[in-house]
Amino acid sequence: MEFTKLINGRESIRSYDPTKPVDRAVLERILDAGRIAPSAANRQPWRFLLISSREMLTQVRKCYQKPWFQDAPHVLVVAGRTGEAWARQDGWNSIETDLTIAMDHMVLAAENEGVATCWIANFELSVLRSALSLSSEDRVYVITPLGYPRPGFSKKGQKQRKALTDVVKYL
Ligand SMILES: Cc1cc2nc3c(=O)[nH]c(=O)nc-3n(C[C@H](O)[C@H](O)[C@H](O)COP(=O)(O)O)c2cc1C
After folding, report:
1. Ligand 1 pocket test, candidate residues 8, 12, 77, 160, most atoms within 8 A of CB
2. What is the pLDDT of residue 168?
3. CA of 144 to the centre of ligand 1 (A)
4. According to the model, what pLDDT value does residue 137 have?
5. 73 CA to middle of ligand 1, Å?
6. Which residues contact 27 (CB under 8 A, 6 or more apart)?
7. 12-22: burial string, b at 16+ Cβ within 10 Å, e else
8. 119 lines ligand 1 (CB under 6 A)
9. Average pLDDT of each block of 10 consecutive residues along the chain (171 residues)?
10. 12 lines ligand 1 (CB under 6 A)
11. Which of 4, 136, 143 is nearest to 69 (CA)?
12. Are 73 and 13 in contact, with CB atoms under 8 Å apart?
């Protein structure tokens, strides 16, 4: 898909058809877009946890109780460890930036495949931690459902955004 069309067309989708899982080959192309994402000092401090089994979905869905989230046939969790990420001399660590860039790559790759996503940060971390047996070292900042919208769903097709003049300063 043409890039400008792709980024304008991506929307947070809050409607998922529980009967339509995404093909393995499509999922792998999406995950591969995360694999090739840039990271500070190329540390690649991430793990991509793709939850599709009924048992794991039952556990993971408890971390975000919205009804539409319960319908998604897959949930993608990007996890990583601070100790594996790059740290600047002043102590700043790149983990959140690295993991978020990887997620953005995968969200855009999903859009390119016609697969719906929705960034979610408002999940219960402790629930996710225990569902996925994450250690206290593991960081998770965002997750997304993956799937196809329910029949009849249509995108808003309009972005609510500040004007370019409000956010850009040419110096
Ligand atoms: C870091 C981040 C966290 C978000 N967390 C949530 C969330 O917990 N629940 C939700 O429904 N949407 C969440 N969103 C989606 C935003 O509400 C959405 O991206 C924004 O309103 C713009 O709409 P659009 O994605 O359709 O363009 C999140 C988005 C980002 C980037």
Report:
1. 12
2. 98
3. 10
4. 94
5. 19
6. 50, 74, 146
7. ebbbbbeeebb
8. yes
9. 94 98 98 99 98 98 98 98 98 98 98 98 98 96 98 95 98 98
10. yes
11. 143
12. no
Span from the CA of 69 to the centroid of ligand 1 (angstroms): 13
Q: Which residue has the tokens 């946890």?
A: 49
Structure tokens at 64: 């975000």
Domains of the chain, residue spans: 3-167
Against a cut of 0.90, is the pTM above it? yes
Q: What is the pLDDT, as a whole number, of residue 114?
A: 98
Q: What region does 114 belong to: left with phi over 0, alpha with psi -120 to 50, or beta?
A: left
CATH class of 3-167: alpha beta
Q: How far is the CA of 89 from the centre of ligand 1 (A)?
A: 32
Regarding the beta carbon of 122 and ligand 1, being less than 6 Å apart is answered: yes
Token pair, residue 163, equals 């004007």
